[in-house]
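Researcher: Quick test of sequence recovery. Tokens follow.
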């Protein structure tokens, strides 16, 4: 499909620079079939039904944004996929000044060797020393805010908390599964009281999620791989819930993509551990999920293509037009939508 079919105009003032306070006070656009309804995230217990299961991503964002030098050259690096105990693939700013074998000094005693350049322009970095890389990043790194926020303000101490979900446990993401940012312990208790369950899986979100689609046709775009895991107990529980008539509602496109990667043509979710580069566009037949809660996405992005695959492109264009006119806040710190085909 032509990528320009997924374009729309978004006024810059609609981009949220801070999350709602409290988190579950964020607005929620319900799109159920052709019906559009304005609500709040805290209304979820009334919008779902007993037996439904919300599926969250428990990945934890690491301080994956680094600033350093190779000699006199200033080098910026955003880690996006782990390849080994000390090896990461990174998008590098000023990459033309980096050659294989160069040492990049990131300050605070943290350095890495540029080992190789990949076909997409990414560079493999091997971190020096014996300390765990997680400790090195805590010293030298900063929270990797999305470019549409980072371009308007610098990351600060608030982001260290604001950009983590209440489920964040497994370190390894360089972007938050932002739909889950809206949840609070109080909201989870209210959902449980209504018989609405929840489960967790892990997908370490990579910075590739923010890369623009440069191709003119979706057939020519290639997704970056991300590592994920669904354990056997979780797969069994989700299959049992569906068999009993419950709906699986993915909280975030990351949860959805991993669930779809782990599900066969028979609709059975299987344990999964490994990389996925699934790219969902209109025409895709969903096998694992019955609904999606997600924030509002960039024009021409793979994520807007995904929600268009779930609900229909024209329906999503109409829903986004309503959200823009009604003053909804967009992107990672913005409001949410609940999409029920």
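Model:
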């Amino acid at each position: 499909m032509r990528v320009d079919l997924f374009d729309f105009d978004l006024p810059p003032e609609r981009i949220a620079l801070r999350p709602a306070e409290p988190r579950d006070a964020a607005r929620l656009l319900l799109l159920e079939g052709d019906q559009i309804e304005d609500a709040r995230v805290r209304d979820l217990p009334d919008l779902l039904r007993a037996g439904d299961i919300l599926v969250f991503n428990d990945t934890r964002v690491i301080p994956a944004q680094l600033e350093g030098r190779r000699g006199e050259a200033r080098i910026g690096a955003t880690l996006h996929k782990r390849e080994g105990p000390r090896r990461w693939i990174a998008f590098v700013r000023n990459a033309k000044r980096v050659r294989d074998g160069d040492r990049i000094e990131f300050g605070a005693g943290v350095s890495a060797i540029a080992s190789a350049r990949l076909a997409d322009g990414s560079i493999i970095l091997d971190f020096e020393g014996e300390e765990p890389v997680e400790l090195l990043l805590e010293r030298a790194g900063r929270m990797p805010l999305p470019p549409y926020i980072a371009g308007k303000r610098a990351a600060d101490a608030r982001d260290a908390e604001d950009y983590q979900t209440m489920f964040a446990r497994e370190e390894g993401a360089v972007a938050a599964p932002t739909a889950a940012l809206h949840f609070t312990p109080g909201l989870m208790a209210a959902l449980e009281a209504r018989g609405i369950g929840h489960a967790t899986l892990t997908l370490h979100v990579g910075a590739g999620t923010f890369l623009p689609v440069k191709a003119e046709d979706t057939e020519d775009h290639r997704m970056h791989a991300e590592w994920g895991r669904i354990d056997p107990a979780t797969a069994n529980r989700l299959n049992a819930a569906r068999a009993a008539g419950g709906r699986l509602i993915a909280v975030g496109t990351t949860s959805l993509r991993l669930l779809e990667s782990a599900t066969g043509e028979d609709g059975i979710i299987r344990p999964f551990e490994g990389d996925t580069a699934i790219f969902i566009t209109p025409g895709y037949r969903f096998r694992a999920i019955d609904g999606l809660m997600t924030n509002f996405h960039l024009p021409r992005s793979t994520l807007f293509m995904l929600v268009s695959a779930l609900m229909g492109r024209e329906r999503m264009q109409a829903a986004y037009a309503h959200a823009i006119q009604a003053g909804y806040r967009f992107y990672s710190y913005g409001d949410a939508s609940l999409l029920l085909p």
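The first helix runs from residue 44 to 47.
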